[in-house]
Amino acid sequence: MAIKEFDTVILGGGPAGFAAGMYASRGAVSTAIIDVNMLGGQPSNYLELENYPGFSAIGGFELMEKFEEHADKFGVEKFPMQEIESIDLVSNPKIIKTSESEFRAKTVIIATGAKPMKLGVAGEAEFVGRGVSYCAVCDGAFYKDKIVAVVGGGNSAVEEAMYLTKFASKVYLIHRRNELRADKIVQERAFSNEKLEFVWNSVVKEIKGEDLVSTVVLENVKTGVVSDLAVNGVFPYIGILPNVDGFSGQIEQDSKGFILTDETMKTSVDGVYAVGDVRVTPLRQVVTAASDGAIGAVYAVRYIEALKEVTV
Ligand code: NAP
Description:
2 domains, binds NADP nicotinamide-adenine-dinucleotide phosphate, alpha/beta, four-stranded parallel beta sheet
């Protein structure tokens, strides 16, 4: 098995990982980015962002390409599509074993991001790809002139519901309360969208169909009334969970698994930093992920320099 030694290994090639990679390699430490998927992270699937400073509107994929080019400029080595076998954050050096290589690193920056939360109802897993989808940008076009339901009341649910109105003849937004969590500006746009119909105080109890989804069973949480709603597709957008497979339990995390850090992005384990959506943070945006990446990398570089001083 090939052994690859780096000062810093970054787990995850999204905005936090690329920003960390750019800062670390520019800080003259050898840096690798490892990802289990293609590089680019969650924003690669966003049709458009209009809140990344400097770009009043830019495609998510395009922005991530720019992040990657910027990291490339300073010599980050990239390892996408890795099959990870084990991660030891506590040992020194830290060791990440993949099916092909053993990576050894003085520091690890965790930038693995987050994944969609599941509704956990009957029919959800069964109908994935046959009416249940967690990515409106990927699958929206399949619902031309169809009826779909989006579940949730946050920015993701409302924005994705509006995106789906470009294709679908009608989009129901099913929310468990009678007030949205999404930003006010997003709410205003949604309320003026004629194809969007809000189903308040309601939760999905079951997703039904034969080959494809045909119905969601709803329960009104105020009245207890259960009813069927005819839909061709269901898009749950009820929040996110951290990607911590392979190292959960080795560092301090909150009850959902998000990683606790201090303001320098340091975790409870020496030499391990966590940046972006995977950590406990009040705002999860591309700009905050990039900011976290910069801070984490600067402190990882300082940690590496301090180690060199000790060993000289
Ligand atoms: P979120 O803000 O946590 O919203 C999750 C929504 O799902 C909430 O409305 C919540 O209801 C509902 N929910 C949670 N669990 C549920 C369940 N089991 N059943 C039914 N409904 C449930 O998550 P998000 O919208 O995915 O956003 C995640 C983060 O990314 C946020 O910080 C958000 O601001 C950010 N984001 C920003 C943008 C942007 O600025 N353009 C776009 C997308 C996402 P309650 O409201 O009742 O809790």
